[in-house]
DNA sequence: TTGTATGCGTTATCAC
DNA sequence: GTGATAACGCATACAA
């Protein structure tokens, strides 16, 4: 039977501290600290070896908390996400993580699960943990909340959406261009009536911007177009409106395409169409979407893929530059989307058949 | 000499500390600390008000780092996730977050993105940040790595999969029962040949367990069954094997069902089937899966839904109990899955048609 | 009821 | 080159 080293309480064998290492190496804490911080030049090779041995023997890991307390930077970066259920967020997160790793930051990920209260709560927590900066992709945070960060000298970078009355670095999709790209594609494929479907704008600027871009494009092209607002929590009215629109087009007859403003909307609409038209719904009605979700290929749905990974990466880079002291005015980085054409938007036979 | 009231750089208005608050309220730090920790009874109402005013005026937020340093607990809980791309992980995470919130912990989320090196690195980082406990859902961590936590008195709870040679609390799906449930359903629906499709086991115990359960069930039922191992990074051979199997059944003819061990496998297989049989693939071949992904409904695929949210919640509860000093032997919590029947596994016409 | 002093694990300042 | 020693922001034993 192993009595496991004879820990005094037998419970929690306290982790070694810098003092323990110093004692073990027969030296002072300063030298240990120096070793840890790579001030390797000023250490005699002999002492250095003793330190290394001691560290290894005690399995010593410097305490980031204490470190952060002392030097005022703990390498923590807050990442507030409105909805991890949306693959967009996960993909952005991947970029964020990669960049953080590369630059030596540790992302403190906060998932608000679409609850505005959670967003506020997490934002508070983040200041409490003294993150050095925050990347925010939120649903309903207001300007004031973010101001407390900026005013406190903590840089904020916005992702996907801006916050009214608050100017900071922001990175996201080039929505106008992406929407135009998609709409033009539909028109080129011969659709002469496009229905844009989007969630209630609320505080989410990207929704508003996309819808505006849709109107602009449709207007410029002289194509018929309209917008339906869908509340995912209460989708029935919007779905009925869609049905009505499709039925009217059937009678007309007109070639109509549905254009979902993001993946969650697209899924909801696709489910409805499948229910109404059966497994072959894609051949009856064209559905296109911003966000290239994993099931898009399965449904044969044309999409605009967002450069999610790059968005995440850029966000961290922006933050990093600020943390390094960059003092320039707020920047905006709009990355282009990529049209992924699939069968759903290929020319359909006219609905009369 | 106090120079520091004149923010020299004007840039980062240093956050208020407990000392600032004490000065502002005209009292000592102790009273502030008492106020913060709810020892509200021992404070004169008058002082209490001054403190409240001071805190509000300075927008003071206690520094969790310093706090944690002093009392030895920082309320941080590590959550290592193998793959956030898998909706399973996100759902578990939701449960974890909710429970953490309820119990006053802050989850430090680490996403290894299926890279074993990342898992190791993050585990190191977690000890560095002195998390009080860890919840682990990993791809390839070995026993030794986790031992350093346990030995250091940091409780570990495993999710979905166990780690060979390492005994701790673990919570996940009741795999044997779930697989039996699904398999029995298939047999009852008249399928007389079931193909189980699973990723290479590697260190992932749940894969092994599911496959074993499949063999057991199929054996007990006296039904024909086989297993195909698919490497998602190199799926061609497995997909060819599936094709061959389906072709053979066509000739026989036999009613064969495909049973994917999890969502990523199901998606890969579904994509392949769609490519091969067109949009109506569901009517040609039956596909069932563990994990009820968001597109399952869209594809009309029968699944076993995991109690993901509860899994996450239980994991945190287990951890919490350990953190409160519970000393019982390692526990195992296996939660039941729920069969979600959809059209894909309804009796199909025999393949000859 | 309130305040003083000490220490948590680290880094920074300054001696030697 | 090396090592005391004083903070960092907070909690607590102890004194008042």
From TrEMBL, chains A, B:
Keyword NADP: no
PROSITE patterns: HTH_LACI_2
Superkingdom: Bacteria
Segments forming domain HTH lacI-type: 16-71
Keywords per UniProt: DNA-binding, Transcription, Transcription regulation
Matching CDD domains: HTH_LacI, PBP1_RegR_EndR_KdgR-like
An example molecular function term from Gene Ontology annotations: transcription cis-regulatory region binding
Keyword Cell inner membrane included in the entry's annotation: no
Pfam families: LacI, Peripla_BP_3
Protein name from the UniProt record: Transcriptional regulator, LacI family
Organism, as annotated: Caballeronia arationis
């Amino acid at each position: 039977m192993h009595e496991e080293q004879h820990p005094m309480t037998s419970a929690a064998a306290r982790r070694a501290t810098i003092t323990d290492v110093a004692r073990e190496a027969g030296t002072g804490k300063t030298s240990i600290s120096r070793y840890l911080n790579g001030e390797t030049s000023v250490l005699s090779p002999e002492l250095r070896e003793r330190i290394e041995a001691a560290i290894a023997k005690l399995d010593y890991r410097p305490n980031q908390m204490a470190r952060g307390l002392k030097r005022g930077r703990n390498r923590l970066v807050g990442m507030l996400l409105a909805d991890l259920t949306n693959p967009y967020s996960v993909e952005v997160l991947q970029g964020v993580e990669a960049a953080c790793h590369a630059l030596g930051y540790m992302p403190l990920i906060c998932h608000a699960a679409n609850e505005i209260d959670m967003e506020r709560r997490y934002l508070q927590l983040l200041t409490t943990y003294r993150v050095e900066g925050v990347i925010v992709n939120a649903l309903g945070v207001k300007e004031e909340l973010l101001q407390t960060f900026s005013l406190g000298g903590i840089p904020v970078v916005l992702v996907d959406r801006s916050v009214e009355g608050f100017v900071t670095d922001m990175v996201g999709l080039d929505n106008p261009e992406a929407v135009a790209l998609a709409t033009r594609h539909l028109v080129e494929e011969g659709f002469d009536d496009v229905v844009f479907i989007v969630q209630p704008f609320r505080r989410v600027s990207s929704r508003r911007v996309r819808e505006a871009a849709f109107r602009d494009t449709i207007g410029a092209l002289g194509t018929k177009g309209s917008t339906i607002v869908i509340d995912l929590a209460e989708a029935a009215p919007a779905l009925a409106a869609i049905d009505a629109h499709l039925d009217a087009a059937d009678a007309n007859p007109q070639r109509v395409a549905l254009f979902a403003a993001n993946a969650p909307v697209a899924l909801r609409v696709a489910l409805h169409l499948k229910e109404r038209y059966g497994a072959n719904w894609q051949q009856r009605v064209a559905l296109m979407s911003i966000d290239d979700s994993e099931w898009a290929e399965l449904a044969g749905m044309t999409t605009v893929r967002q450069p999610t990974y790059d968005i995440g990466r850029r966000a961290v880079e922006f933050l990093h530059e600020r943390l390094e002291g960059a003092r320039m005015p707020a920047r905006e980085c709009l990355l282009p989307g990529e049209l992924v054409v699939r069968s759903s938007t290929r020319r359909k036979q006219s609905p009369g058949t």
